[in-house]
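Structure tokens please, single chain.
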Amino acid sequence: MQTSQIGIPARWATFAMSAVFVICWSSGFIGAKLGAGAASVLTVLMWRFLVVAVVLGGVVYLLWRRRGLATMSARWLGSQLVIGALSQAGYTVTVYWAIALGVSTGTTALIDGVQPLVVAALAGPLLGAVTHRRQWWGLLVGAAGVVVVTWSDAASSAGAPWWAYLVPLLGMAALVAATFLERRVDDSPSPVVVLAIHCGASAVIFTVAGLLAGVAMPPADGAFWLAIVWLTVLSTFGGYGLYWVLLRRSGVTSVNTLMFLMPPVTAVWGTAMYGEPFGWATALGLVMACGATWVVNRAAPPPEARDPGEAEARTATAAP
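Here you go.
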């Protein structure tokens, strides 16, 4: 049985990281709600990524002083800047913007929730990977679970302009594009370095936007800084960081299937922290999403039996 460096079976290590990833990624909606009452979207996003960029910049500096860093080509650095801009700035700003326009969080989660189907459909043409029949059934069940969870909430978004519904679709497309672009990038020196580059790119983008919009000054409200800490530790380091780690360990289809769990788990967060209703539809959707995630990952062939195109893509981006 394959084991990790600390003696834990690799399968269980991946399962534990997947569970933490789902919880942390779902926490982003709660963090956004924490900061929404204290500052504008741009202010929250600007200071979130500034804090993360400073912390990661310090970590990278210490790594460089202690053991040096691998040489990075201009092409590789440019690719990582684009990936960071798409997967962080592009994704987060569209989600926040859509909600500000009147699209409910449930509808936004519903649109984001079909991401695994998009990834599975494109994995073959772009990576040469194979999505098996059982995995397709699991993906469809997961999509149905997302619809069940968010259907009633979607009906409450009638006040939003028609074009507002395209905004979260753009965010989903940005994250999908970043995912596939990352699979084509060779020789990543370190996950910490990659995350620092991504967050640095987003920090620059949101700082420029905040300054131009005149909303760069942070409020003194304690709720705002609580939201920044929440988004920094849970959503960025926990959610975003584990996304790329799991992408290398499990493959594109398996990792993106975990996105089916985000809407129901977010509903659990909302119920626990804000007393939001948790009805039978949410419970049913949670069961369907969990079942879909199990089916897709169980249906995936072992690493040595996977499609050569997928294996090549995984090898190209494996951590040193």
